[in-house]
């Protein structure tokens, strides 16, 4: 068997900026490509791994990697369409603004809950786990904990810290999320403020595999992953498709603001 260091070396020789985030001396017993998406200058892969740690224990995990690649320009490619993201769709809103904070919080809760149910989860409200968060769901043995917030601020960072505590209590094999609106200007947080928050608090959440998910203000069926990806396969595939659209949506938002100011 090869080691993690040797696999990462192969990726590097192939020109891929993908590195398995495990100790270098762990052995890779098996590696399979579950999903692969290629664009003009980006390749994204979802890998199913079987690893042997330094104590001889076998560990199974899913790893998502993304890398820029250099290609000869042949065919002009566009961002992947988002059709077929979900089996059932919620209706789009008429505006990106909300009537009240309560309206916004309910929108976030409904959108994320609907996504979980669409991917085979069952919402649970009568267990001990559900008392800790706004949304608790199960799919087989897998648990999903999620709470919602409106602003990228200290309060949202506190929600993230609570998720880290829950991860310590219930284990890293489950998924944990902080759910926010994609655009928070109505609540006093600019896009730059949000980006700065992600650079600071978001880095810590990424280390603990706590996902920050931004729900599109108009379309509740589109949710962008901004830190970690969930471990559950169907959800990860969904977020692999929406992740590239976040940069596009930010650019469109900034262009509209500039046009409005001029």
Your description of this structure?
The chain is an alpha+beta fold. It has two domains: 2-68, no CATH class; 101-261, Rossmann fold. The chain has five helices and ten strands, in the order E-H-E-E-E-H-E-E-E-H-E-H-E-E-H. Strands 5-6-7-8-9-10 form a six-stranded mixed beta sheet, with helices on both faces.
Short structural description:
The chain has 262 residues and is α+β, with helices and mostly antiparallel strands. It is built from 5 helices and 10 strands, in the order E-H-E-E-E-H-E-E-E-H-E-H-E-E-H.
**Extended strand count:** 10
Number of domains: 2
Distance between the termini: 61 Å
CATH T-level fold name of the largest domain: Rossmann fold
Question: Secondary-structure element sequence?
Answer: EHEEEHEEEHEHEEH
Q: State the helical fraction.
A: 25-40%
Biggest sheet, spatial arrangement of strands: 5-6-7-8-9-10
Which structural class matches the secondary elements?
A: alpha+beta
Overall body shape: globular
CATH architecture of the largest domain: 3-Layer(aba) Sandwich
Mind telling me the CATH superfamily name of the largest domain?
af2093 domain
Could you name the CATH class of the largest domain?
Alpha Beta
The number of helical elements comes to 5
Uncertain runs are 73-78
Beta content comes to 25-35%
Oligomer: single chain
User: Major β-sheet, in short?
Assistant: 6 strands, mixed
| Averaged pLDDT | 87
The Cα radius of gyration reads 19 Å
């Amino acid at each position: 068997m090869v080691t993690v260091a040797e696999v990462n070396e192969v990726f590097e020789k192939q020109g891929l900026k993908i590195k398995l985030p495990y100790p270098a001396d762990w052995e890779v017993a098996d590696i399979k490509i579950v999903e692969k998406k290629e664009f003009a200058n980006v390749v994204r892969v979802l890998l199913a791994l079987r690893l042997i740690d330094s104590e001889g224990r076998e560990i199974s995990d899913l790893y998502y990697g993304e890398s820029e690649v250099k290609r000869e320009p042949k065919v002009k490619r566009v961002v992947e369409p988002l059709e077929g993201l979900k089996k059932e769709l919620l209706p789009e809103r008429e505006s990106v603004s909300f009537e009240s904070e309560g309206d916004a919080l309910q929108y976030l809760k409904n959108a994320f809950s609907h996504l979980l149910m669409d991917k085979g989860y069952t919402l649970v409200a009568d267990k001990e786990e559900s008392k800790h968060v706004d949304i608790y769901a199960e799919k087989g043995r897998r648990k999903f904990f999620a709470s919602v917030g409106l602003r990228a601020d200290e309060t949202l960072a506190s929600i993230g810290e609570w998720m880290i505590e829950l991860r310590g209590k219930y284990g890293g094999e489950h998924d944990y999320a902080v759910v926010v609106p994609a655009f928070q200007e109505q609540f006093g947080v600019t896009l730059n403020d949000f980006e700065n928050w992600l650079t600071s608090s978001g880095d810590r959440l990424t280390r603990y595999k706590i996902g920050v998910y931004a729900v599109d203000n108009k379309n509740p069926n589109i949710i962008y992953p901004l830190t970690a990806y969930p471990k559950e396969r169907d959800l990860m595939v969904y977020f692999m498709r929406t992740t590239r659209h976040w940069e596009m949506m930010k650019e469109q938002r900034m262009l509209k603001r500039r046009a409005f100011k001029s």
